[in-house]
Write a structure and sequence with these properties.
globular, alpha/beta, nine-stranded parallel β-sheet
Amino acid sequence: MRFGLDFPPFNELADPRLLAEIGAAAEEAGWDGVFLWDHIMYRAPADAAGDPWIGLAAIAAATNDVVIGPMVTPLARRRPQVVARQSVALDQMSSGRFVLGAGLGLDRSGRELSAFGEEANDRRRATMLDESLELITALWSGEPVTHRGEHYLADAVRFEPRPVQTPRIPIWLAGRWPYKNPIKRAARYDGLFLIDVEGPHQLAEARQLVAAERGSTDGFDFVAQGTPEEDATPWADAGATWWMTKTAYDTSAQAVMQAARNGPPR
């Protein structure tokens, strides 16, 4: 199992220069990945929020080995063609260390949808997520793309350069237990970031569902999360391939830096 440091770029951590320092410290201490929450706004006490994509670029430039990515970006409030360009740029900057974490998003964590007139209906955002992923992966191919969908249009376009990683950038989809459709969506891609689970037994159930959808779990990542004090061993036994050490959203920059320097809970 691999270990990732997962935290929000809120308040003091909104400064991408500090994020680069934390990323470098995490790499030196033996973490396998450094991941940032993707929010435009968040509820109190998060008064300030940094752009996670700029923060990831800073981390990419300051590191050589750690995997990086947004955990997770709500694609329904992003333009897929912009995400395609930005993700390839981050894949280039990191020499192939970027993972695209994506999900449905929600409004109750800080009105980041309703405050800007974004789509608030869960089912409609789900169709936007599916279509956006279809278009992004097509644009990554470097082949001519014509797409006329319910939500997005691409009229005879071709995107170069292609990602560093082949056949493409890995995609992890967030899934909130016990909903099955997000897990089935994740099974079509490369990983499942399972949230709101009570214990490892539910991760094991999700793993069975993914196996039934894919026919195998080979090459597929199962991402679990917990606090720095929690024992990750039962999650590894249940099939987790990544363990995200989740810090509280109001954690100070000093505390996150210390967590980075402490290294993963091996």
